[in-house]
Amino acid sequence: MARYDASRHSTFTYPNAPLPFPPARNHPLITSELRLASVVSTMDAARELATTQDYLLVSAETQSGGKGTRGRAWRSPPGNIYMTVGIHRRRLPAPRLALLPLELGLHLWEESASRVTEEARSGLKLKWPNDLLYQGRKTAGILVESFGDYLMAGFGINVAAAPEVTDGGAPAACLAEAGIPPGSREALVEGIYQRIRAAESDPESILLAWQAKVDWDRPVRLRDREGSPKVTAVSVNRHGHLLVRHGNGTEEWLVSEYLL
Ligand code: BTN
User: Fold this and answer.
1) Does residue 224 carry a pLDDT above 80?
2) In the predicted model, what is the mean pLDDT of residues 173-197?
3) Is residue 111 part of a domain?
4) Does 41 contact ligand 1 (Cβ within 6 A)?
5) Which atom of ligand 1 is nearest to the CA of 70?
6) Ligand 1 centre from 230 Cα, in Å?
7) 249: in domain
8) Whether this model's pTM surpasses 0.85
9) What domain count does the chain have?
10) Does the Cβ of 163 fall within 6 Å of ligand 1?
11) Could you tell me if the CB of 101 is within 6 A of ligand 1?
């Protein structure tokens, strides 16, 4: 299953050689962390915390106004993870920025997978760009927003409870079903935050690792299109765009969050 084929993407402007993720400036890492009992949304709290730190973390036990992608609400009962990691742009050179949505999904997968049996791990998959699925059902989602010098990555991770995905009512799963005890919440938060801060990978290895976690045989549906047509995911490029194939054989690059 060779998915990433550099020869198909030879027109991209940055070199094929692996590009590490060095900070643009050589200065000590400055971070802030805030753990709250309840909040409207950790996205807003993170905006208030952001000054000049390299990385920041806000987590909460519940949210009263949790936000999902495309303006949807994110149900936020106690027992699940609600966290936002702010990343200063000086930590986001262009190659890392391009693949950040995939990189974040990988951290989520790796941290979750490191806590389950091999059998349960085989049920954990990523859906482009960074939904975490367990046995085909959504288990976590990531909302990325831009705020001044920061990109804010909000993780909603079902640990103990699996509320239905808000509009559409798609069935959800939680990590407890995969064997992760609800008491692991704080360790998961810390693990994901550490993985983001320590990321030293290169685009090539992110693409390869990400592709290995996707269920390529599972058809996906295009949202925002009449009839939400079913397509097959084919490959992903160095910009993190997804190539999909329609039923009539035509192919199309998706550049944003188009899948149901
Ligand atoms: C999605 O719709 O898939 C993304 C959901 C992201 C939810 C998280 S919970 C923590 C952070 N705070 C929010 O209000 N939203 C994100």
Assistant:
1) no
2) 96
3) yes
4) yes
5) 2
6) 26
7) no
8) yes
9) 1
10) no
11) no
